[in-house]
């Protein structure tokens, strides 16, 4: 691994081999890193999820240098899981890569087979879902909601569950019914706040969030993107409030809600003026 030619190689296969060799060395029971040796699928999974989000963050910031590094971190997660599987005799990285290649070839008969590629994106999406449904059936996943990963972020999983149900006709025919349901669930949250246990209140808030995800789907809005944008807007505006407070020689801890709310309105108005 110390070979300079290999270290500086621009050949993808050589660099992949180098990364796999590094992972094997880290997991070596006798000479490896104690931390890496001690890890399991369960302990590494949170890091895998975190790295995927950091890839998305680099993309959103259009930081290509950072994206290169984050994609490497995410690749390393796949290598790590594959090495743990190899150690346990389940499968290895070659099996992972071959499975992915086979899947992509099977799901793109219009590219790798004899089907015409003269399809609209909408038709391709429909065909893709048919192929995935056949794959699920082959795994004996026959129920409508089978295969929607439990580990997905809750908002994303809600959207996917609702899309699956909608494919078999379990869906409101018009967005107005969704809005009515939001009003109903919001009223139940208000009632639960005063009369129910915390566990029951949590359930009612969950129901409300689930219907909000459904509203986004009906409006063709990605709920994850919408909430991410709202988070970014809140962060930007609150930092604007902090800047205005700093100009007065104060911090949020030195202020109160009335002052900060007024400054929030000022920041919001300034943003609107900038856009107009």
Short description:
GO terms for molecular function: ATP diphosphatase activity. The chain has 276 residues and is mainly α.
Main β sheet profile? none
The average pLDDT is: 90
CATH topology of the largest domain, what is it called? Helix Hairpins
- CATH architectural label of the largest domain: Orthogonal Bundle
Strand content: under 5%
Number of separate domains: 3
Give me the number of helical elements: 13
The CATH superfamily of the largest domain is identified as: MazG-like
How would you describe this protein?
Belongs to the nucleoside triphosphate pyrophosphohydrolase family. The protein has helices at 4-7, 12-27, 34-38, 41-60, 64-87, 93-107, 109-112, 121-138, 154-167, 175-195, 198-218, 223-247, 257-275. The protein has three domains: 4-107, Orthogonal Bundle (Helix Hairpins); 143-221, MazG-like (Helix Hairpins); 225-275, no CATH class. It is mainly α and 276 residues long. The model has no long low-confidence stretch (mean pLDDT 90).
